[in-house]
Amino acid sequence: MSVRTGKIALGPLEISILRYLWRKEGAEVKTVFRELGSSDANSLNTVQSAMERLFRKGLLSREKVSHAYVYRAEVNRMQMISRVIDDILQSFTTDSKDSYLLAFLDHAVESDTQALDMLEQMIKDKREAAAAKSGEGNG
After folding, report:
1. DSSP state of 139
2. Fewer CB near the terminus (10 Å): N or C of the chain?
């Protein structure tokens, strides 16, 4: 699977690397290669190039430790999903948020009958967290 929007382009290997690093504190290229690359017939150089591209895109950070770089995810999974969705929405809609919110709700209903209940709870949790956060600034 690849992800390509107006601003974001990620190939299958880059997505696999991000998924791997979201589960780890950080890793060298050789470690990522052993975990991901060898099973997909990717060479060490291919994995290294993909991690370099992710670094240049601002999705990974790196720190030189001894003889090698240790890479870490610079964005978490939810931030990445949010970026992709935002980019897609900006590409397809020029009108109000209503159209894509309704499209999202339609998709949620079609995907899972419990989705609306889950969505309602998530909205409630977000509102409570936002209220608590704004309350901290007032105290």
Report:
1. -
2. C
